[in-house]
Amino acid sequence: MSVSTRRIALASGSAIAVLLIGIFAVTQQRGADVFADCRQSVIAGGAGAIGGAFTLVDENGATVTDRDVLTKPSLVYFGYTFCPDVCPADMGRNVAAIDVLDEMGYDVTPVFISVDPARDKPEVLKEWTDYLHPRLVGLTGSEEQIRAAANAYKTYYRVPENPEDEYYLVDHMTQTYLMLPGHGFVEFYSRETSPETMAENVACFVDHAG
């Protein structure tokens, strides 16, 4: 075997070894993930990078933390009650999924966190959430509390500075987060996900959580 041929063979062998190590690592990581069969998305930094502790005010005016609210599997959404179309549509989808899950025998809590504290006082939230679903939990708080919660969930929103129009719009992201007790954040859903698809996927996660 010539020197050049030997070099090619060694290089090829090294490349194959690296490839096999990579495949083994991915397989091991997937095998260690109890939710591997349920995941539909890839989260940069891993699921543990999203979610965390928060302190907010519920629709009854009580100060609550994530430990008070997320006691069951929960679907968490950041929006605002004055939203003209996106938030009502997204939350309508979320509570429809909750109803499907109820029929399947799964108890899941829908949660709505306002990103518009100036207008979304507890009494406003209560009227809005009670209209959408009897189990929908509405959360608001100070600007600092809401910003901290949004940062923990890696979500974006922007309230106009000194708005002159009382019907101002708030720019915000629209993903819904699935949170599981003992696991934290495990999945998110886009606006395109149907209630039925969401319910089936949530059930998969709950089943695999044990």
TrEMBL record:
It comes from the Bacteria. InterPro entries: SCO1/SenC, Thioredoxin-like_sf. SUPFAM superfamilies: Thioredoxin-like. Belongs to the SCO1/2 family. This is SCO family protein. It comes from Albidovulum sediminis.
